Amino acid sequence: MPEGHSVQRTANWFNKNLAKQKIKVDSPQGRFSAEAKLVNNRTFLKARAIGKQLFLDFDNGLSVRIHLGIYGKWRYYGKAEKDVVGQVRARFYTSKAMADLRGPSVCEVIDSQQVKLLEKKLGPDPTNPDPKKINQARFVERVMKSKSAIGLLLMNQSVLSGVGNVYRAELLFRAKISPHRAGDSLTQKQVVNLWQDSVALMKVGIAKGVMVTRQEQLSSSKIHDERNYVYKREGLKCLRCKGTVVLEVMASRKLYWCPGCQK
Ligand SMILES: [Zn+2]
Fold first, then answer.
1. Is the pTM of this model over 0.70?
2. Cα(253) to centroid of ligand 1, in Å?
3. Are residues 36 and 141 in the same domain?
4. What's the CA-to-centroid distance between 241 and ligand 1, angstroms?
5. Where are any strands of DSSP class E within the chain?
6. Which residues form the domain of 228?
7. pLDDT digits (tens, 9 = 90+) for 27-51
8. Cα(254) to centroid of ligand 1, in Å?
9. Would you say residue 108 lies in a domain?
10. Which residues are registered as beta bridge partners of 23?
């Protein structure tokens, strides 16, 4: 399952290669054909990522909303390709660039009213610009008034958009916070720090295309195989204390953490 940094990278590709042009939209596989006609040959204005959702806005007030889900994948080309490989749900292209979408859990055309409703429901996204710290304040408020475990809150897309299993585990390890702590038991400083660290880590993720969380690798240009502190390191020695990293299941997702130093 992609986390928000990869959706932001997709938005960047669309903005760089297709924005402000008339683009073709169709559905080689057929399942999106009727809706594709609503935006085909219209001017594509911009792409926006909010959490794990991508919105492609067109000049007729309509947007394509895409959520990759578990199986969805993008493939990009430097020119229009005639060949269709596999089940291509949607194809977005000009003569110079093309993006094929396969297997998304959502690919639909919605109007601006529906976009607004969705935006309201989604929690703040640490990859979006936040000059007035409004998003930070929304996150802090939602966490601090909740009795749910912080391990659940970080995965709740109405509290925080775009963070998934890897960043959830790593953010809590870096902050030395147990995933079982209730949101309302954390200090404001701890919650602000979680937000700011998610902004910093996802910025690196967008730049590198991989989820690096080990401090010494954040500014290095090399890509290491072992780039996380606890994710998928169950049974191994903690990199910070003498404890052992454990694997638990929390709300049916795997949760990695160190009971030795996360309190
Ligand atoms: Zn530890």
1. yes
2. 21
3. no
4. 4
5. 21-26, 42-50, 53-58, 62-67, 73-77, 88-93, 98-102, 106-111, 246-250, 253-257
6. 134-257
7. 999 999 999 999 999 999 999 999 8
8. 18
9. yes
10. 42
